[in-house]
């Protein structure tokens, strides 16, 4: 009895002592607009910038930092890589509890939703709309005497990029787009080329050399029809140019979320509501399950992989949807042993991700469980990639210069350069027409518009270009293809609502993960579509 | 050096919050240069007394003097004692040499000197060949000798031995006993030897101290204590086989056991306990003595024959039967069932009052 | 009789051979299970990404096919930025940090563990048992919970600063919070408790202080346990990940564990260059293997505890 009492006292004391430390409370958010300085601060200012980039991208960033520091010699930008987003985010989250955070950092929308909740992020609208003109008064500055502003022209941005960055409390911008990517679909043109007549018979546009349209996406109805032509469910048939599966989707989560938008099926919203418990979502999952059943659609879990690229290259599947930044993983090169690849070193083309409908708010009839169902569909392609924002703890001078640095990073020429060097997409529209030549190698320079032109020329010639084998354009052909496809579908980019975990439901990152698991469970036969959805709902709400 | 204990008391608080008087107002003088056997059943306070002398325990009350010096405030290492434990307490990771050397290192004895003394000690206990062995590689007796050497190496004023022989087998025990005696004689160091084995204590000690319940019962030379016990407890505790205790009475100055006359004593009439050592019986071959019994069992071992008798008791229960033993010369031919008449050697018979005090 | 005897010998021999065959077969299987991952790591470190993903997998590679650049690229110097002039994978810097942090943590942990275990096993003081119970109670609290409180503490002590963190700061921040372990204290206390009281009394009579007794008697006797603690603790420090990543503000302060994770992942696609990562892993594992083989006897003895004999 005494021992029992002792253990209770002990437990109580232990947890009591631990419980003494409480960490920053989060009350209702009150937006306090930043006060703009009227003069450019002249004292020495250090701006700390946390990102996650490795050597290659850091080198580009360092050049931009150096240029910026030449313009503002009193400013030092200290960029530090935190190696991965998980570390970056947790360092900022613990840092917030003691007020030790960088001046600015890279982050996904759900990261910023958390920072906003913790009152740690700065609303950027005052900078965006600031009308004050600042004169640079520093003889050491490369722009001494010039007048600058902090404002940016929002109309120059892809609208959905903006929507993603002002989805937070009060509709303010707590971040701005920085590095963006989307999904594109790689297709095995060598296989397609063998079935041109049959494909044309379906009413699908295809060139003599097997190029599909780069401006009009395929629909899922067309994919279902293509399955009959291109798929041999018992295994890839090389002689008949048939793959075992028609289309792989790398990101199971993106498939769930993007398909929900194409079906107009409620998923989540920025307020943090989990909306998946509805008939449209259920029908959608049943429909996807039907596509799984006919080998029209496959997930990397089929091969216990994270990505389907390897199996695409090995010829198990004819098409694959993946990140535009990872396009190169879907291109078979001479590094591969041709005899091991079912179709050898085949030709690859990139097209837009498949859609339910080709015009917003159109009805389309699909068959779900042998019954006809009408879907009111929208166009949608996934938009992903980190944004950039500023933290509240910094001094006004630090914040101002951090903002000026952000503004510099996303200037058309710089974002174009960043995009071409990294495989990301430019943050703003004017970058597409940027005519500033960017040195890609010691001998080769290209403007962003000429960069886009590479794939356009290739497509226009139906693949029959008379470029020399030494032509640098070959090196940028596939990245140009991915960039063009991304640009062509940026009218219907959609973002994934971001929110932190709340009292009744999980955060957006968890929702995303469970969406992916939900599809894996259906694919693997663990759950029926309805059960899998119920399971997902029970995991996300409490 | 003489050790004197005055009013020495040690009270432990037991788990159920009761006071236990482990050592109870002990007054004791241990003469210089003597080997004293501290004897008693387990729990009698003998080890506690030893630890109090060593300074490992602090007394509740009373004083301890080494010579003229009061030691209560002196920590163990300053008391100049050597202590040997029942389980030897050798440092298992050290060699014999390192074990013996260890106290000297702590005393900061000069290196060469320490080496010399270590070797001398090893020689004294006959282990000079084993200096580089670890305790595990030694027999129990050898380990005990290492422990003694370690205790003696710092030339203590007092050597304290806590049941040093009880972990040894019978043969080794005898050997080591002799060894300890020899070493003590050679070193002439005041030694306190704690044991529960009366035979051991009697054979080794110059004087024995018998303790019970924290109280000293008797002190004196072993044979004297054996011959003249001051109380029934001492009489019973010493001697093997145990002393025979009869319920008897004194009537008209005659000592009677079950109304059989066994002797005379000038004492008032009363009930008494009559203790008779087994060797105190003389067979009355003429059967004149009225003190007689029927022999129940005869055991002859070597030169002695032990006769075992049942008391004529009302008790039916066999286990409760009182028996007594008489040791007689093996020359007598006696078999079970014989009726034997005895006389009792007066010096082997002790009378105790009903409280157990000698009369 | 003789026949029976001979046939018994034969049966015995057959039995012995059979049991030996089984024993060695078992040992070979165990050895393979342990060696295979090492082989795979080394093999992968010599492959290109394409080769790693090849189906069927490449099990053997001729030296001419080895992609040695996985290794050499690690030491290619960075051209620009904060780390200009340093190798792409600053192996020696990271390794130095890990070694320094491991050594400091292990020394610190061992000292606090020995002292605390001694106090709890040997010394009598008021509230000892309840204090020990509280300590044991903290074992029920998962370590992750301490991250935030430790972080706040370390920050208040001035060891965490985004722009002004010194090497000393980061060493203190990485080591001080981990310089004690309740589990090790408990473990060592049990060992200490098995040492008989008499030894303590004997040492007291022999003129040692508590501290000297601890140093000269308790520690040598409990050495196998202490070595086990040292080995376990260094392993823990070597592979520590979350805290070091959280608390180091500069790239050159990173530990090898953090360096291995982040350095080879393409941030825009989340894909890892496994060949290069494996090459770096080989480099990181190598010193450990060398250390293990150099101190094999001591480590085995420490772990198996049988070393106390003779």
Describe this structure in words.
- The complex is a heterotrimer of chains A (542), B (359) and C (310).
- Chain A has 542 residues and is α/β, with parallel strands linked by helices.
- Chain A folds into three domains: 45-179 and 385-422, Periplasmic binding protein-like II (D-Maltodextrin-Binding Protein, domain 2), CATH 3.40.190; 182-383 and 499-540, 3-Layer(aba) Sandwich (D-Maltodextrin-Binding Protein, domain 2), CATH 3.40.190; 430-491, no CATH class.
- Chain A has helices spanning 2-19, 55-71, 85-98, 109-117, 125-128, 159-165, 189-193, 196-201, 220-230, 252-263, 279-293, 309-313, 396-409, 412-422, 448-460, 473-488, 508-523, 529-540; strands at residues 45-51, 75-81, 104-107, 134-135, 147-148, 176-177, 181-188, 245-249, 297-298, 317-323, 348-351, 362-368, 371-377, 381-384, 387-390, 438-439, 445-446, 493-494.
- In chain A, strands 7, 8, 9, 10, 11, 14 and 18 form a seven-stranded mixed beta sheet that branches. Chain A has a five-stranded mixed beta sheet with strand order 2-1-3-15-6, with helices on both faces. A two-stranded antiparallel sheet of chain A has the order 4-5.
- In chain A, a hairpin with a 2-residue loop joins strand 12 (362-368) and strand 13 (371-377).
- In chain A, helix 2 packs antiparallel against helix 14 (412-422), helix 10 (252-263) packs across helix 11 and helix 17 packs antiparallel against helix 18.
- Chain A is globular, with a radius of gyration of 26 Å.
- In chain A, 50% of the residues are buried.
- By secondary structure, chain B is α+β, with helices and mostly antiparallel strands.
- Chain B folds into two domains: 3-237, P-loop containing nucleotide triphosphate hydrolases (Rossmann fold), CATH 3.40.50.300; 244-352, OB fold (Dihydrolipoamide Acetyltransferase, E2P) (Beta Barrel).
- Helices cover 23% and strands 35% of the residues of chain B.
- Chain B contains eight helices and 20 strands.
- Chain B has helices spanning 46-54, 96-106, 111-124, 140-152, 170-187, 198-204, 222-227, 232-237; strands at residues 3-13, 19-30, 35-39, 61-66, 69-70, 81-84, 158-162, 190-195, 207-212, 215-220, 244-251, 254-257, 260-264, 270-276, 281-283, 292-301, 304-310, 323-329, 339-344, 349-352.
- In chain B, the strands form four sheets. In chain B, strands 6-7-8-3-9-10 form a six-stranded mixed beta sheet, sandwiched between helices.
- In chain B, strand 1 and strand 2 form a beta hairpin.
- Chain B is elongated, with a radius of gyration of 25 Å.
- The mean pLDDT of chain B is 87.
- By secondary structure, chain C is mainly alpha-helical.
- Chain C folds into two domains: 2-73, no CATH class; 88-263, MetI-like (MetI-like fold), CATH 1.10.3720.
- Chain C is built from 15 helices and no strands.
- Chain C has helices at 2-45, 49-52, 69-72, 91-122, 128-138, 144-156, 167-175, 182-194, 197-205, 210-221, 223-239, 242-247, 256-262, 274-294, 296-304.
- In chain C, helix 1 (2-45) packs across helix 14 and helix 4 (91-122) runs antiparallel to helix 11.
- Chain C is flat, with a radius of gyration of 26 Å.
- The two termini of chain C are 44 Å apart.
- The model of chain C is unreliable at 306-310 (pLDDT under 50).
- Chains in contact: A-C, B-C.
- At the A-C interface, helix 1, helix 2, strand 2 and helix 3 of A face helix 5, helix 6, helix 12 and helix 13 of C.
């Amino acid at each position: 009895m005494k021992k029992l009492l002792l253990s209770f006292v002990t437990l109580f004391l232990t947890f009591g002592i631990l419980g003494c430390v409480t960490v920053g409370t989060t009350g209702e958010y009150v937006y306090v607009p930043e006060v703009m300085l009227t003069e450019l601060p002249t004292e020495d200012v250090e701006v700390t910038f946390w990102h996650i980039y490795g050597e290659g991208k850091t080198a580009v960033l360092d050049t931009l930092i150096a240029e910026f520091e030449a313009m503002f010699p009193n400013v030092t930008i200290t960029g530090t890589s935190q190696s991965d987003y998980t570390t970056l985010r947790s360092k900022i989250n613990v840092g917030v509890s003691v007020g030790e955070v960088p001046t600015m950092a890279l982050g996904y929308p759900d990261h910023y939703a958390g920072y906003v909740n913790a009152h740690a992020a700065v609303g950027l609208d005052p900078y965006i709309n600031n009308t004050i003109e600042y004169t640079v008064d520093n003889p050491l500055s490369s722009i001494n005497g010039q007048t600058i502003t902090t404002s940016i022209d929002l109309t120059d941005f892809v609208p959905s990029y903006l929507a993603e960055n002002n989805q937070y409390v009060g509709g303010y911008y707590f971040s701005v787009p920085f590095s963006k990517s989307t999904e594109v679909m790689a297709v095995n043109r060598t296989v397609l080329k063998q079935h041109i007549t049959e494909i044309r018979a379906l009413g699908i546009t295809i060139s003599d050399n097997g190029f599909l349209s780069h401006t009009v996406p395929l629909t899922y109805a067309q994919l279902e029809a293509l399955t009959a032509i291109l798929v041999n469910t018992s295994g890839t048939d090389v002689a008949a140019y048939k793959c075992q599966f028609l289309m792989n989707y790398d990101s199971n989560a993106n498939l769930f979320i993007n398909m929900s938008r194409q079906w107009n099926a409620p998923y989540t919203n920025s307020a943090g509501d989990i909306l998946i418990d509805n008939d449209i979502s259920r029908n959608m999952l049943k429909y996807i399950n039907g596509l799984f059943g006919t080998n029209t659609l496959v997930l990397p879990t089929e091969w216990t992989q994270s990505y389907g690229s390897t199996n695409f290259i090995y010829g198990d599947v004819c098409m694959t949807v993946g990140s535009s930044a990872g396009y190169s993983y879907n291109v078979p090169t001479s590094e591969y042993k041709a005899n091991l690849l079912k179709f050898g070193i085949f030709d690859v083309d990139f097209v837009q991700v498949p859609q339910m409908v080709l015009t917003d708010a159109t009805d389309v009839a699909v068959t779900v469980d042998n019954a006809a169902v009408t879907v009111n569909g929208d166009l949608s392609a996934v938009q992903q990639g980190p944004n950039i924002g500023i933290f509240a703890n910094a001094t006004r001078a630090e914040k101002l210069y951090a903002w000026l640095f952000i503004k510099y990073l996303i200037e058309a020429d710089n974002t174009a350069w960043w995009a071409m060097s990294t495989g990301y997409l430019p943050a703003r529209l004017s970058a597409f027409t940027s005519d500033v030549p960017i040195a890609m190698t010691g001998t080769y320079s290209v403007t962003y518009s000429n960069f886009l032109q590479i794939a356009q020329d290739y497509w226009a010639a139906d693949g029959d270009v008379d470029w020399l084998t030494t032509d640098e354009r070959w090196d940028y052909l596939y990245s140009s293809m991915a960039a063009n496809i991304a640009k062509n579908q940026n009218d219907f980019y959609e973002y994934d609502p971001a929110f932190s975990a709340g009292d009744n439901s999980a955060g957006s990152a968890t929702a995303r993960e469970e969406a992916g698991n939900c599809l894996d469970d259906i694919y693997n036969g663990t759950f029926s579509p309805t059960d899998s959805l119920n399971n997902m709902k029970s995991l996300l709400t409490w | 050096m003489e050790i004197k204990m005055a009013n020495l008391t040690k009270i432990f608080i037991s788990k159920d919050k009761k006071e236990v008087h482990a050592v109870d107002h002990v007054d004791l003088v241990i003469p210089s240069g003597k080997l004293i056997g501290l004897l008693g059943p387990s729990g009698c306070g003998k080890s506690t007394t030893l630890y109090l002398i060593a300074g490992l325990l602090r007394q509740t009350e009373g004083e301890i003097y080494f010579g003229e010096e009061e030691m209560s405030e002196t920590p163990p290492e300053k008391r100049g004692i050597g202590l040997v434990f029942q389980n030897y307490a050798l440092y298992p990771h050290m060699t014999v040499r390192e074990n013996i050397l260890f106290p000297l290192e702590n005393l900061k004895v000069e290196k060469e000197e320490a080496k010399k003394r270590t070797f001398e000690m090893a020689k004294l206990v006959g282990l000079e060949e084993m200096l580089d062995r670890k305790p595990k590689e030694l027999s129990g007796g050898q380990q005990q000798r290492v422990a003694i050497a370690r205790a003696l190496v710092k030339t203590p004023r007092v050597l304290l031995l806590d049941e040093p022989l009880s972990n040894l087998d019978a043969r080794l025990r005898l050997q080591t006993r002799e060894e300890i005696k020899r070493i003590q004689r050679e070193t002439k160091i005041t030694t306190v030897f704690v044991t529960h084995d009366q035979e051991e204590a009697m054979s080794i000690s110059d004087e024995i101290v018998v303790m019970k319940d924290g109280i000293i019962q008797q002190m004196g030379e072993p044979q004297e204590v054996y011959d003249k016990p001051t109380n029934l407890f001492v009489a019973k505790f010493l001697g093997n086989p145990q002393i025979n205790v009869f319920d008897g009475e004194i009537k008209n100055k005659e000592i009677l056991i079950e109304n059989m006359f066994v002797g005379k004593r000038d004492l008032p009439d009363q009930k008494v306990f009559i203790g008779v050592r087994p060797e105190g019986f003389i067979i009355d071959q003429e059967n004149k003595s009225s003190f007689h019994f029927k022999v129940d069992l005869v055991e002859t071992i070597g030169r002695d024959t032990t006769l075992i008798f049942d008391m004529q008791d009302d008790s039916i229960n066999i286990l409760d039967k009182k028996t007594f033993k008489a040791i007689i010369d093996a020359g007598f031919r006696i078999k079970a069932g014989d009726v034997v008449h005895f006389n009792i050697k007066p010096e082997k018979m002790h009378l105790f009052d009903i409280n157990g005090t000698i009369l | 009789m003789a026949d029976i005897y001979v046939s018994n010998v034969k049966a015995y021999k057959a039995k012995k051979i059979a049991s030996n065959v089984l024993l060695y077969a078992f040992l070979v299987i165990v050895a393979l299970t342990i060696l295979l991952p090492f082989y795979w790591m080394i093999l992968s470190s010599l492959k290109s990404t394409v080769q790693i993903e090849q189906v069927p997998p490449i099990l053997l590679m001729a030296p001419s096919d080895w992609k040695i650049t996985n290794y050499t690229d690690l030491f290619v110097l960075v051209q620009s930025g904060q780390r200009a002039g340093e190798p792409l994978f600053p192996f020696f810097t990271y390794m130095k940090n890990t070694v320094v942090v491991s050594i400091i943590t292990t020394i610190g942990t061992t000292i606090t563990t020995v002292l605390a275990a001694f106090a709890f096993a040997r010394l009598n003081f008021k509230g000892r048992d309840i204090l020990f119970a509280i300590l044991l109670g903290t074992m029920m609290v998962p370590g992750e919970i301490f991250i935030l409180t430790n972080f706040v503490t370390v920050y208040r002590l001035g060891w965490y600063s985004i722009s002004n963190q010194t090497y000393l700061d980061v060493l203190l921040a990485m080591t001080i919070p981990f310089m004690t372990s309740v589990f090790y204290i408990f473990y060592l206390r049990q060992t200490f408790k098995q040492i008989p009281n008499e030894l303590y009394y004997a040492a007291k009579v022999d003129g040692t202080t508590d501290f000297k007794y601890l140093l000269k008697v308790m520690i040598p006797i409990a050495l196998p346990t202490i070595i086990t603690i040292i080995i376990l603790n260094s392993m823990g420090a070597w592979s520590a990940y979350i805290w070091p990543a959280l608390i180091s503000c500069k790239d050159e302060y990173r530990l090898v564990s953090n360096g291995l994770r982040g350095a080879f992942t393409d941030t825009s696609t989340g894909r890892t260059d496994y060949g290069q990562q494996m090459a770096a892993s080989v480099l990181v594992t190598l010193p450990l293997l060398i250390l293990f083989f150099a101190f094999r006897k001591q480590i085995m003895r420490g772990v198996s505890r049988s070393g106390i004999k003779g």
